[in-house]
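Hi all, long-time lurker, first post. I run a small reading group and we've been trying to get comfortable going from sequence to structure in the token notation. Rather than ask abstract questions, I figured I'd post a concrete chain and ask someone more experienced to write out its structure so we can walk through it together at our next meeting. Sequence below, copied exactly:
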Amino acid sequence: MNNQRAQEIADSPTMVDVTYNGTPIYIQHVDEKNETARIYPLDNPENEQSVPLSSLVERSQRLEMGDINMKCPSIK
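-- Answer (accepted) --
Happy to help. Here is the structure in token form:
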């Protein structure tokens, strides 16, 4: 995740589906200089930690096989 998107999510009043190592998290603060974020797991708010922004994944950015619908074009 890039600095700008992480900051947008941190500033947003709505929850955005972001994960760290597959765990849903909340972004508390973004340190743009160090490219890190202060986060905590949604199910464990006491477990705060600083992690690299590159390790955060926004749900809409993940591509899963269930999201793919491929069709071959008709040959005429």
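A couple of things your group might point at:
Residues 3-61 form one domain.
The chain has a mean pLDDT of 87.
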